[in-house]
Amino acid sequence: EKDMGTDLEKVLISKEEIDAKLAELAAEIDKDYAGKDLLIVGVLKGAVMVMADLARALSTPVTMDWMAVSSYGAGTKSSGVVRILKDLDTDIAGKHVLIVEDIIDSGLTLSWLLSNLTSRGPASLRVCTLLRKPEAAKVAIDVTYVGFDIPNEFVVGYGLDYAEKYRNLPFVGTLAPHVYGG
Ligand code: PRP
Ligand code: MN
Ligand code: MG
């Protein structure tokens, strides 16, 4: 176990809970996409851990692509301004696409991404997210696969960062308020 130091307040979701939930989600996805070609799209950088573990939990053969968008910069609040830092390598027209995210907070990133990808003409477009904060939603988003609904606290770990730190924690934890001036 990594040293949590004094920056973290508590473990919110353990590695074991994440693994169990991803196995459940993978079973649903396997069932829903049986016989179809599925492209999973990970949203860098936060979704790297979910993509890696979800992809390995799936029985369905998938192809994987990545987009890098960022709306947070170094702060703790979404700016709402989404920048494409890296686009998909592949044309998604006519393909079954599943966007994989680590967290839906305000929903602004995904809302923007959904309209962007919809305009490219995929056969279907759905969302899978490990975490969602219902109390923080600024836009309603139709999400097919949700791991955990969590309270409106600043969380880090398992891909999620604060100023690029804590992404490699194997669990999801809450950050102590003193770290971000709370
Ligand atoms: C985080 C997170 C989601 C998004 C959710 O990404 O990984 O992609 O914010 O926030 P929202 O629902 O309020 O838009 P971030 O922009 O921090 O980039 P990162 O994945 O590289 O950390
Ligand atoms: Mn992200
Ligand atoms: Mg971030």
TrEMBL record:
* Predominant location: cytoplasm
Q: Could you name the domain of life of the organism this protein comes from?
A: Bacteria
UniProt cofactor(s): Mg(2+)
Q: Known EC number(s)?
A: 2.4.2.8
Cell compartment(s), UniProt? Cytoplasm
Single GO molecular function: guanine phosphoribosyltransferase activity
Q: Which UniProt keywords apply?
A: Cytoplasm, Glycosyltransferase, Magnesium, Metal-binding, Nucleotide-binding, Purine salvage, Transferase
GO cellular component entries: cytosol
> What are the recorded Gene Ontology BP terms?
GMP salvage; guanine salvage; hypoxanthine metabolic process; IMP salvage; purine ribonucleoside salvage
> Has keyword Oxidoreductase?
no
Q: In which pathway does it act?
A: Purine metabolism; IMP biosynthesis via salvage pathway; IMP from hypoxanthine: step 1/1; Purine metabolism; GMP biosynthesis via salvage pathway; GMP from guanine: step 1/1
| Catalytic activity line of the entry | GMP + diphosphate = guanine + 5-phospho-alpha-D-ribose 1-diphosphate; IMP + diphosphate = hypoxanthine + 5-phospho-alpha-D-ribose 1-diphosphate
InterPro entries in the cross-refs: HGPRT (IPR050408), Hxn_phspho_trans (IPR005904), PRTase-like (IPR029057), PRTase_dom (IPR000836)
Q: Which Pfam families match?
A: Pribosyltran
Query: What protein does this entry describe?
Result: Hypoxanthine phosphoribosyltransferase
